[in-house]
Amino acid sequence: MRIKMRIRRFNPEADSKPWWGEYWVDVEESDRVLDALHQVKWYQDGALTLRRSCAHGICGSDAMVINGRNALACKVLMQDVGDVCQVEPLRNMPLIKDLVVDMEPFFAKYRAVLPYLINDNLPASGERYQSQEARARYDDTTKCILCAACTTSCPSFWANEDYIGPAAIVQAHRFIFDDRDDAADLRLRVLNDVDGVWRCRTVFNCVQACPREIDVTRAIGEVKLALLNGLNE
Amino acid sequence: MIHTHKFETIVVGAGGAGLMAALYASQGSDTAVLTKLYPTRSHTGTAQGGIGAALGNLDEDRAEWHTFDTIKGSDYLADQDAVDIMCQEAVNVIYELEHMGLPFDRTPEGKIAQRPFGGHTSNFGEKPVRRACHAADRTGHMILQTLYQQCIARNVRFFDEFHVLDLLLSADGQATGVIAYEIDTGDLHVFHGKALIFSTGGFGRIWEITSNAHSLTGDGPAIALHKGLPLEDMEFFQFHPTGIYKMGILITEGVRGEGGILRNRDGERFMERYAPNLKDLASRDVVSRAIYLEVRDNKGIDGGRYVHLDATHLGRQVVETKLEDSAEFCRTYLGIDPAVEPMPVQPTAHYAMGGIPTNVDGEVQRNASGAVVPGFYAAGEVACVSVHGANRLGTNSLVDLVVFGKRAGKAAAAYCQQNDWAELPAETWQPVQAMLQRMMDKDGQYNAADLRAEMQSLMMDNVGVFRTEEGIQSALNRVRELQECAQDITVMDKGKRFNTDILEAIELQNLLDLAEVTAASALARQESRGAHSREDFKARDDENWLTHTYASKVDGKINLEYAPVNITIHNPEERTY
User: Of A78, B103, B275, B514, most Cβ neighbours within 10 A?
Assistant: First the structure.
């Protein structure tokens, strides 16, 4: 089938502001939006710039706005985009070129929640034990691939780019609710900040945006409850 | 603009091997990690089923059984001293990953959970053993995330989206650094180092149907080749039996580990005929060949080039909790629910057993006699230790990258403490800049995507699961023509900022060079062993070919040398499953 791609373009060396490029592509129904973007890049305009790697929804490189919604270009099929497929870079991030944005502010927030297990009490030999129930407690948030689809879909983040954002809270949740970790209080202190978890207004955009189907708003809610009631409630 | 940096250890590539190496190198040396992606985008993250180690948490298990299985799986081409080290050290390295916070699934008593995997057995081949430690079917994702987390905790210095284009050797042949292209700015950076660790991953993109990421273009081995260094055992490339039909996306072997069954158009469990003992859990080369033979025998589904992987009898609970990602791939890309319908699968190019030759400390060898390049290390899929020989067992890629990533990192740190800075060569960035300028100025006849597509289909058809002299020779001839064409590409993007157009052209040149070495190595090996199946030489020939291939490029020609396999534990036997 023949579909029109409408792609937000910006070349920092030539353009003063972004513009819309329009391209026709011949694709199969089962092709991904990423395949259509490759068709444009490989056969029409080699300057079209995007990030991608694994092409099956695991590496998190190709999050973008597709027909108004945040998604991975490798996880949306052309049969689902309608007659025109409109593609834009993630919102509210510093734009570098075409569909590429500066991810550093996003990763800085990730680093701020101390995203690593903190526990100095190691067994003399072998693994630490963890019950299946304790392991299940944080399973959902271990799926995060740091694609930024959630954070950049959030109206609170659009309104205030200092908001730490759903992705960083998801990452904090993964450790706060891991019973092997000893530093929940440090992370909760970060998330209790004025730009922390309280800026979430439970809009649920993040849940819709997450390509890993993480229940992001629920994770944020659990962190809020931990702040209000303590971890053992 | 040219920038210069000085770090004692420079790690290139930030997948599992690179991050593990960085964690250890940074404990004893000032370390920088360069990656053309962001670390968490690396392909380790897509590994699914598990990481093998003889913890014995569910079944009795011993490291020596793991060693035996790995050697047998390699069709006796692996170096047995290296395999022994890997399987012995695997156990403690798994505990180390757990201590770092890796969220393994757990047994009812809270130990690390394990499941069966292809070719892994107890008591030297007696029956399947639960050895693959897993975190749902996203074990690689968890390893990559955990190692990156630890790097953040320890303040490891990263240069993200820096694409390495050249390796610097001193006048007397020591590694002294790399030249990197900063993707965002187009600037060149000279990194002067004492020790250099390549962990750039594989090159599955030389084939049409592959599980590999677009970024797996073999930049590391291609750069080594350009420097006159050899690549080992390049004819051995693993085709994983269960890629999603036409797309190549991997469906984990864990599906069969959990009890999934391969069926042909008659619904027959055909693996019973090819591997009466282990059936669907025979090693990957055996299962991939079986699928090809079924298809050739018109037993593919609806006469097509695929078979069914049936998980419908496992129940929704197993599919949704233990095989979650594979189920999600099927729903997203095929509109199929694997708890209800079988999955259409075909073999997909998956893993390079060959690569940059190293010893067990990750030191890169400069020739078949084993002499090393001082200060140069490699680990992970880019390297050939060799622990996988002619065919890698499932889960052993992850074992390889943590065990040998760690060993390379430690060795590099020790090297830095014992050695002074070697001088940079007289020319560092100049040749790279000249090459980039030449490519930018070229008004060429060819399009990189066309050349790439042709190479991929050539290699798939002629240097794939089954090979013949005629087929390999024709592919080799055409690849050499494509190499010429690749010097005459038009780069459409003429800018400095984020120019992925020129990088794709460079990656294509790297892929073509590796395709050439792969085909030349395959053409020379007149036997069938592991993943290398010659229809004109159907038997394994230990008398003449129990050897490692070392292929280098001298004056534009491929030069092949051979080195003996290190056989210290198990004498080669007939390989049946």
Answer: B514
